[in-house]
Amino acid sequence: TKGSVAERTGLRAGDVIVKVDDSRVVTPGDISGTIRSLGSKRTFPVVIVRDKREMTVTVTLEADGVKPVKM
Questions:
Q1: Do residues 25 and 54 make contact, with C-beta atoms less than 8 angstroms apart?
Q2: Do 13 and 61 meet the contact criterion of CB atoms below 8 Å apart?
Q3: Would you call 66 helix, strand, or coil by DSSP?
Q4: d(C-alpha 70, C-alpha 65), whole Å
């Protein structure tokens, strides 16, 4: 969705999130659980699979969500 948190992090429809920080993602709940557990850590890597290729995007938590740092 245009302007969504996913779009701002560089994610696209069809991307599969496989790791947040150092935690493997098995279910969608793993994503939010891991982000909550990061506490004061504001910047972390997210590993995705896009078109059968693994990619890493670094995201930074902000008051209104997240923003991409690099991909």
A1: no
A2: no
A3: strand
A4: 16
**pLDDT digit string, tens, across residues 36-65:** 888 777 789 999 999 999 999 888 876 655
Contact between 10 and 70 under an 8 Å Cβ cutoff? The reply is no
Q: What is the pTM of this model?
A: 0.76
Task: Give the H/E segment covering residue 3.
Answer: none
C-alpha dihedral (10, 67, 55, 20), degrees to nearest 10: -130
Angstrom distance (rounded) from CA 40 to CA 28:
22
70: left (phi over 0), alpha (psi -120 to 50) or beta: beta
d(CA 28, CA 71): 21
- The Cα–Cα gap between 33 and 25 comes to 10
